[in-house]
Amino acid sequence: MNAINATATSPDSAHPEPTQIHPMSDYEKFLFDLKGFLVIPNVLTDEEIRTVREHTKIYVKDPDSLPTHHRAPIAGPAEFLINHPRVMGILQEVIAPSREHIRLESVFISCRSDKNSGNQWRPHVGGTNLHPSFSYRFHNGRIYSAMTRIVWELNEVKKGQGGTCLVPGSHKANLASAQDGTWPEQADQPDSGVWETYGCPPGSLVVFSEGVRHTGVDWTNPENPRCAILMAYNHVTVRFHEPKPCMNPVVIGGLSEERQKFFRDVWILGNNRDK
């Protein structure tokens, strides 16, 4: 199911609101459950890549030149990423069937080159976890992934030269857990043999359950820098991150009405009764 029917846009967005999603295939669900992550190549068109890259470049280098409501990684011409049909097909499978129960709670840009990468190796999370943002369950035929990370890779990623590193299956590890401090230091060494990374063309999508042990890694590709937008979605009843300053009321107010809903506050039980 790839069809998208245009219904409404924000005042200055060229991308219509999708009314249909692109659901996960059975094999994608199998891989996500098995490994805790997916790499989906070539999701964005060439024109979409150019548009988002240009917005990202201006936002990083000269944000004051943008309209105030565009001063965020996923505002203005990039806001369509918030509820891209491919993203929603995944989130409605692994967080909640209804988009009304999905929040976007964090977004940031990763831009670095082989000359200014710094030390990115900081493994975190992993192991069976009771924290509501890092737990992973399978119940009644459905995946419950808790907080789920969406990464839009806007430039080519060459395998072994700077993409995010992950430990496959670590979201379900039983004998070690970062939560209780028992994750073995030996396993965190880059050459331990437990780490997996990826290569992908521009416009690809990387998705992982936040409970998977993962880390950034130094960017060593001299041909192009890394340019990625990282977004964290969660169930509407849970929040882990403090809101990012860039996603402020001015920016959120400039989004389409439907996309504004992804920034609603956390709630448990809606009180719709008359007072």
| Sheet with most strands: strand arrangement | 1-7-5-9-2
Whole-number tally of structural domains: 1
Report the count of strand segments: 9
Order of helices and strands: HEHHEEEEEEEEHH
CATH architecture: Sandwich
Distance between the termini: 43 Å
- The CATH class is identified as Mainly Beta
Mean pLDDT: 91
Sheet with the most strands, sense and barrel status: 5 strands, antiparallel
Percent of residues in beta strands: 15-25%
Low-confidence stretches: 1-9
What structural category arises from helix and sheet content? Answer: alpha+beta
Radius of gyration: 19 Å
User: How many helices?
Assistant: 5
Give a quick summary of the entry.
The protein has a single domain (26-263), classed as Jelly Rolls (Sandwich), CATH 2.60.120.620. The chain is 16% helix and 17% strand. The chain contains five helices and nine strands, in the order αβααββββββββαα.
Describe the structure.
- The chain is an alpha+beta fold and 275 residues long.
- The chain has one domain: q2cbj1_9rhob like domain (Jelly Rolls, Sandwich).
- Helix content is 16%, strand content 17%.
- The protein is built from 5 helices and 9 strands, in the order αβααββββββββαα.
- The protein has helices spanning 26-35, 46-61, 85-94, 249-253, 257-260; strands spanning 37-40, 102-112, 137-139, 142-144, 148-153, 165-166, 204-209, 214-215, 226-235.
- The chain has a 5-stranded antiparallel sheet with strand order 1-7-5-9-2. Strands 3-4 form a two-stranded antiparallel ribbon. A two-stranded antiparallel ribbon has the order 6-8.
